[in-house]
Design brief:
6-stranded mixed beta sheet; Rossmann fold; single chain; His_Pase_superF_clade-1; alpha/beta
Length: 222
Amino acid sequence: MPSSTVHLLRHGEVYNPAGVLYGRLPEFHLSERGLKMAECVAEYFAERAHDGARIVYLAASPLTRAQETAAPTAAILGLDIEPEPRIIEAENRFEGLRVNRSELAKPRHWPYLVNPFRPSWGEPYEQQAARVLDAVADAARVAVDRGGEGAEAILVAHQLPIWVTRLKVQGRPLWHDPRMRECTLASVTSLTVDTASGAVVSLRYAEPAAALLPGAATTPGA
């Protein structure tokens, strides 16, 4: 069975002093802490490569924070950052707002709150998982084409699409409490993929920047 490991890397901390839900809004850059997180991740993948991993493909969401997170890894591994729009942040009708009880209590938002299982305020969870899994399957095939059996790929993406993809792979309901996501800033969710079928056969999780998480901003992207 030809296989590849595809690492879903969440971006680092974003500079967001207003605490808004930034979603797909442009020009949300990494904070100083976020840049350090990106460096930690680069070192994590460099160690993997030193230990024999063949990491041959690096792609990122088009959003600024993902591109900036990918940059140190690209430099240390000597890879180009290739475009992958399918792993972009989820669409969300509350972009640009501070999402709290007082904001959501405004009647103009009520039509978007009727179905949290879909969810009605943004891109359906099923749609998010489907597009990310398509990108994962393609990345696995590209990695094997370029580096042979067992070669690896990195996709730099966003918390919500990564998390619902993990739930989908594990056969769990996609509706969830956002506070319970195991997908911290600059974390790595690694999927082993059967490149013949595109099926995910195993999953593991790591937090290369764990030392930088205390005190980090927790405002979600979507």
